[in-house]
Structure formats: structure tokens, C-alpha cells
Amino acid sequence: MLKNLTTYLPEGRLTNDELAMGFGNWTAEKIFAKTGIRERRIAGQHECASDMAFRAGADLLEGKDRQCFDFIIFCSQTPDYLLPTTACILQRRLGLGTGCGAIDLPVGCSGYIYGLALAHALLLAGTATNLILLTADTYSKLIAEGDKSTRTLFGDAATATWLTKDSSRRLSSFVLGSDGGGADDLIVKSGGARHGAENGKPPTLFMNGPEIFNFTVRIVPGLVRDVLNKARLQPDEIDYYVFHQANAFLLEHLRVKLNIPREKFPMHLEECGNTVSSTIPLTLADLDRSGRLQPGMKIVLIGFGVGLSWGGCLLKW
Ligand SMILES: CC(C)(COP(=O)(O)OP(=O)(O)OC[C@H]1O[C@@H](n2cnc3c(N)ncnc32)[C@H](O)[C@@H]1OP(=O)(O)O)[C@@H](O)C(=O)NCCC(=O)NCCS
Question: How would DSSP label each residue in 156-202?
């Protein structure tokens, strides 16, 4: 099912030293100790999520027959326009054929799991045979300059995943969930149909950090249990638990609560920050690059966040 994976990080960097200069009593070390992040990668002024997704996608497609791809999913909460669908623009830019289905998936931190679930269904139904799942977000453009709680966390990135029915890396045991009761806890209110533009001011991200923290502690342990039950596996049969890389403080809390050994719980955010829909594929790519993935390994993937929304599945490498 999962054939190949590529990633793209923009060139700009925002370090803890730079942040600490503007944030009074939050020193660079204190920011690292809390978040596990030393620097975030930041998209250029005119670089959109679709530009980053294009770079990751072009890398994935290098040397491949582009005409064999018949579906593209662009998972992002920072699309180019309200309309048209950015996936259509990317179909053209990536040189894919016009027989390619194209949809945007505006899901955030659980977006990769939602994208995989959709891809899985499209492939099993025979609607698609070779599908590209792109993830890309530029939250940095939505953050108010002085908002230290979000500025310290989020970075920009993109990934591209090739999914096809005949790959031996199988996906299964999907569990998805949502709770719009927490919609206001992580939200950009302006720029959409309900509020429109706000007196010419750019749309701005609001995060209620403690509520997001409480939500994950409430939901994630049950989500992991449900994926394991569906897969009929015991916790110790899993080789890796790849969670959405929200921040180190939150991840460590969940790891201890779930009693997951440190070596089975990769963290990959020190040099890129929380990249929203891209954290899970970035972590997988890092595991693969560093030779820590072997055929047959069982990996639980877990996403959670804005929506509120969550999802998990099993990936057999
Ligand atoms: C944001 C979050 C890390 C803050 O942690 P917290 O313990 O609730 O923070 P508090 O506001 O109670 O502050 C506790 C201490 O940590 C410090 N702190 C909080 N955030 C910090 C940061 N980003 N960098 C450095 N220090 C930080 C506070 O200054 C305070 O320090 P003090 O004890 O010296 O006064 C936590 O609420 C969280 O993980 N929320 C989820 C947010 C998230 O991951 N969102 C992404 C969406 S998936």
C-alpha cells in the first residue's frame, strides 16, 4: 500500500535564540526543555504550502511514469485559494494526466491518517491504482508575531507519499474520530465564510494550549488501544509508535501514561518543530533514512489535534 515517501523542508530557520530575544523570561534552553524544539523551518514570504508540496511531489515522481498516477490528495489547512481546489493546481504543476482525481483535505494534525484512510479506501475500491498523498502547511504565516505559545511550536514542511495496491507495506486497522465541541481551542476565525476578512488584518491562529493538552490526554490512550484491538495485537508486539509530533512536553506525558519504551517512541521535532499534517511522514522518513526500519516491522501511527480530530492505524513496513 505505501510505496515510497519524500519530504521537503523550506530554507528559512527560526531558532530558539531568535525567539528568546523577543520573549523575555523564556530563554532558548527553556524553550527547548519544554517543547523539544531547537529550530523551526519557515517558508519564504512568497512560498505557499502548494509550492512546498510541489517540491516534495516532484522529488517523489522523479524518473517515474507520471501518467500512471490517477489520484492526488492535497492535505493542508493553508490552501492557495478558497477555490479552486489546490490539488487540481498541483495535478497540472506535477505533470499528472487529466484522468487524475484531485481533492483537498483540509485536516490538520490528524490529516496524514485521514489521508491514508481515504487512500486505502480508494485503492481497495479500485477507484484509484496509484495515488499521491501530499501534506503541506504554512502555519508560520498565521501566527501573530508576539504569540509565544504558538511561535515556539509550529514549523512549515511538506511530504509526498506514493500509495498503490501492490506494495508490501500494508495499512490496516484505521480508527478515526472527531469532536467539534473543541473547535474553538485551535482556530483561525477570519478568512472563511462566517467572518470574512477582519478589517484588512491577516488571519491569525488562536490556540488554547492547556485544553489541547487535556484533549490529547483524554483521547489518545483509548485511540491507541482501539487500533491495537482492531489489529489484534498486544502493545509489546509493536516496533514503533509514531505519534503526531506536537511538542516534547505533551509527547513525553503520553509516552509515560501509555508505558511505551523510549526506544519505540521516536521524536523528530528538534530541527523542524510541529509541522502539523507532515509530522508523521517526516518521522517515518527519518526512521527509514537512519536504517531503523526493517521489512515486517509493525508501526502504530497516531494523529490528533485541530478540529478536534484524531486518527490511528497500523502500518506494516
Ligand atoms: C503549550 C504547553 C506546552 C504549555 O505547557 P503548560 O505546562 O500547560 O504551560 P503553562 O502555561 O502551565 O506553563 C508552565 C511552565 O512552562 C513554561 N512554558 C510554557 N510553554 C512554554 C514554551 N513553549 N517554551 C518555554 N517555556 C514554556 C511556562 O512559562 C511555565 O514556566 P514557569 O513554571 O517557569 O512559570 C501545553 O499546554 C501543551 O502541550 N499543549 C498542547 C499544545 C499543542 O501541542 N498544540 C499543537 C496542536 S496538536
Answer: -EEEEEEEETT-SSEEEEEEEEE-GGGGGGEEE-TTSTTT--BTTBP
Active site residue 268: no
pLDDT for the residue 3: 94
Q: Which ligand 1 atom minimizes the distance to the CA of 153?
A: 23
Is 206 near ligand 1, meaning CB less than 6 Å away?
Answer: no
| Ligand 1 atom nearest residue 108's Cα | 48
CB of 149 closer than 6 angstroms to any ligand 1 atom? yes
The closest-lying atom of ligand 1 relative to the alpha carbon of residue 30 is: 25
Rounded Cα distance between 216 and 252, Å, is 12
pLDDT tens across 5-36, in order? 999 999 999 999 999 998 878 999 999 999 99
Q: Which 3 state secondary structure label does DSSP give 142? A: helix
- Coil, strand or helix at 143: coil
Q: What is the pLDDT of residues 146-159, one digit of tens each?
A: 899 999 999 999 99
Measured by CA distance, the residue closest to atom 3 of ligand 1 is 249
Residue 284: closest CA among 313, 306, 309, 247: 313
